[in-house]
Amino acid sequence: MENREIERKWLVKEVPSGLEQYECLQIEQAYLSSSPTVRVRRENDHFYLTYKAAKNTPGNNDISHEEYNLPLDRVSYEHLRDKRDGRLITKKRYVIPIEGALKIELDVFEGDIAPLVLAEVEFSSEEEAMAFEGPDWFGEDVSFNRKYKNAVMATAENWKL
C-alpha cells in the first residue's frame, strides 16, 4: 500500500523534561539499500520492511517521499537485519502530541550515533510542512541535510555528529 510521507526534521537544543508521560517505542532498524531506501525495522514487538523513495515530481524538495510498509514476522526481520549494510540504528522514539493532529517524534539515538537527538514532524501537505514553526527547544532545521537521514547514518563509515 502506497503512503506519502511529508516530514521535516530538526536537531534538538534541549530535550524536554517529562518524556516518561509519552508513548515510547524502542526502535531498531537496518538498511538493505540506501538508494532507493529499503530497510527493516523493529518497533517494540512489531516488524516491518519499508521501501522509501523520493517523489519524482517537479520541484520535489526532499521532504516528500513514497513509502511502502510491509509487515514481517520476527524470524524474517532477524534474517534480513543480519544482511544489512553498515550499522544497526537503535533509538528510543517518544511520540509527543502537539497542535491539532500533529505529533513530534523525538528520536534519542543510542550506540555510536549517540548523543544525537532529532525531532521529526509529519504533515498532510508540503505547504503545512513549510509553514510549521517548532517549539523553542527545536534547534537547526536539518530537513534538507542528507547527513541526518537514517540511511546515511547507517551506511556512512565514519558518521560523526
Q: Short description, anyone?
A:
The chain has an 8-stranded antiparallel beta barrel with strand order 1-5-4-3-2-6-7-8.
Can you give a write-up of this model?
The chain is mainly beta and 161 residues long. It has one domain: Hypothetical Protein Pfu-838710-001, CATH 2.40.320. Helices cover 12% and strands 48% of the residues. It starts with a strand and ends in a 6-residue tail after the last helix.
Major beta sheet, strand line-up? 1-5-4-3-2-6-7-8
Biggest pleated-sheet summary: 8 strands, antiparallel, barrel
Low-confidence stretches at least 5 residues in length (pLDDT < 50)? Answer: none
The helix-strand sequence is EEEEEHEEEHEH
* Counted beta strands: 9
- For the termini, the CA-CA separation is 35 Å
The CATH topology annotation reads as Hypothetical Protein Pfu-838710-001
In terms of structural class, how would the helical and strand content be classed? Answer: mainly beta
The CATH fourth-level homologous superfamily = Hypothetical Protein Pfu-838710-001
Provide the helix percentage. Answer: 10-25%
Averaged pLDDT: 91
Question: Which terms summarize this structure?
Answer:
about 160 residues; mainly beta; Hypothetical Protein Pfu-838710-001; 3 helices; about 10% helix; globular
